[in-house]
């Protein structure tokens, strides 16, 4: 299986998604070799009848086109900026080490008098200021002397090297919000596609994947910090080789550790600085972040998004984002108001806020025109189940027929058991995927490892199985975002799967797996994976964060995407997007086509 996945990657099949709208991927095949025009592409789709014209969508396409026109010059400006920044950082570090060595030399020569006299004078002045406000010297936290020393050194560096180079003014991004199926993600992904080759760093995240990446980066930084502390007895080689006694060398090592500790206090800034960088790319230039479905489901999402997006926008990243709400309406539960307001201010400063005001769900519109749900078998009765199993046999036979079980890696060192798989195709029951303590990380791993997923025995979902319903919604989001082909057997039609929310909001533990608080010394991700939330169950404060309105939006989005995933246009897009179907297993694509034709005529 691993070799199969590697061969698929070499063909460009299993890779990071670049176009989540399949219709657009088809249109690109017929586009000329001239520089891409997003607005022209949109109009071509309308003329071909593959997209229904919408004035709101056309306005967004026009604004994205204007943004594209500014990116080429901005990429050049950012390239020049990073050259200056690298020179500045190198010079600053060189001068910083000189200052440290100078201070160490003074300490060596005076036997601890000169340097500490200066520090103590600074400390005494601070103590006097505290005394003015009624603070006692005993209340000053330990290490204030080292903090003063650090600040003085930073001021000297500013005077010697100058302040950090100023980031060139970035073109404003777009924050696109509107109803389910209004075309937000389609337009964002059209933009993302045509930026390939225009800028050096570009990433496209859905909310779930972004939060997991943030969590992973934080975990990595924390782990490195812990490992670094265990090695504190080891003094850096550059310090060891200096002609000072051991006491002075220990002082130097302590100053270096203190600098690292100061930087670690701003962990979100450190995460942001690595968030968009390709680990294999040495060149620096402009950065684009396309962020699908911005939401604030919990305190961690607000704090993390505020810290990271603020840093990225301040340092020149261009953001194109989608959401169901305007920025000021994201946090209707009032969590962390001050931090949230800073996030809103940054979004409004760096993005044009644009509403796609259409009430039409265009996914449903397309599905109604095709009048088909090709790979969705319902209800759970003998004839539908036979068709579902027949399709599984046809697909796996076409791909070699060797059914195996295996495990695939998931983030944070976990694995997911896969009961049945065959060369990029897999089958699970609903309970396997949604009845256990799994979440977005598992579904992302699933979507990245398998191009086609069969899910059997999907039940009706209501408050009685609300956790399973929320997991299912997250699963559909990730399969859709990664362009997977989906076959389902279910208890009802798609529109009837979700049975109301009048009893209250559906609650999902996985929605809060990103919290940084611990329980019994364990990361929250581990607590949730073990199903251990304490004897009191779910904290009432967390339950109150979710509203029935938000759940209804999630249901509508999942149903809308499920409907699109059954349409001929979606499946044609899957075939067009993935060379795997065209080169290696064209017969599999023919199965899809024949299934569409057979069911349409039945």
Automatic annotation (TrEMBL):
<keyword id="KW-0067">ATP-binding</keyword>
<protein>
    <submittedName>
        <fullName>AFG1-like ATPase isoform X1</fullName>
    </submittedName>
</protein>
<dbReference type="InterPro" id="IPR027417">
    <property type="entry name" value="P-loop_NTPase"/>
</dbReference>
<comment type="similarity">
    <text>Belongs to the AFG1 ATPase family.</text>
</comment>
<dbReference type="GO" id="GO:0005739">
    <property type="term" value="C:mitochondrion"/>
</dbReference>
<keyword id="KW-0175">Coiled coil</keyword>
<dbReference type="GO" id="GO:0016887">
    <property type="term" value="F:ATP hydrolysis activity"/>
</dbReference>
<dbReference type="Pfam" id="PF03969">
    <property type="entry name" value="AFG1_ATPase"/>
</dbReference>
<keyword id="KW-0547">Nucleotide-binding</keyword>
<dbReference type="GO" id="GO:0005524">
    <property type="term" value="F:ATP binding"/>
</dbReference>
<dbReference type="InterPro" id="IPR005654">
    <property type="entry name" value="ATPase_AFG1-like"/>
</dbReference>
<feature type="coiled-coil region">
    <location>
        <begin position="57"/>
        <end position="110"/>
    </location>
</feature>
